[in-house]
Design goal:
This protein has 226 residues and is mainly beta. The protein is built from no helices and 17 strands. The protein has a 5-stranded mixed beta sheet, with no helix packed on it. The chain has a 4-stranded mixed beta sheet with strand order 1-17-2-14, with no helix packed on it. A hairpin with a 5-residue loop joins strand 8 and strand 9. It starts with a strand and ends in a 22-residue tail after the last strand. This is Methylamine utilization protein.
Amino acid sequence: MINRRAVLLVSGLFLGPLIGGSFQVHAETFRLVDSTGKAMESMVVYLQPKQADNTEAMSGDNQSAPLEIHQENKQFTPYITVIQKGYELQFVNDDDITHHIYSAVGPNRFSFKLRKGNATQSMVFDQTGHISMGCNIHDWMSGHLLVVDTPYFGTTDDAGWVSFDNVPDADYRLVIWHPQLSADKNSVSQGVVLPLAEALTITVSAPMAEIPSQESLDDFEFLEGY
């Protein structure tokens, strides 16, 4: 059983000194909690090698098939998607109405209609960054896409855990991101040396804003048959 220790975050993010040991864990494991100790769910976590020329650390592949963002019940599902630069993403309309998807800000600007009947639109993103998405027809719909230049990324589960398999030993910058995280560029980061001797619990002190409601406030929806 892996011992777990809490690491106090003073301003944004802090990873305490690593505890040495004679063994190495098979997966690099982290748990995120807020300042009250509550698990932080659906937080994006990724690792970037500190050395830009570290080709071994960048050689992993975290995507074997196109990722999908669905429009279902007039919502983006999932609300947050993270993808590696240069890989394919598909937008899939599961609703029986048309959606007009667009990117509000960020790299790789786009705008397109997805007709009803499982219409799809494929895209490849060649620039890193945060892309905020909306629908011109249903203005309460919002979703977020983060494009990263690393194969080592994931989102925390409902208990705040995220793990990375087969990460080469190296110095990394660990980044925690969420569109509602009240920090510069919605992220906090800290250097970390891998492999870890044990799993780390990270306390994120930066506050979180509320996620906007993903439903209409009106009984009448304009352009419902559009």
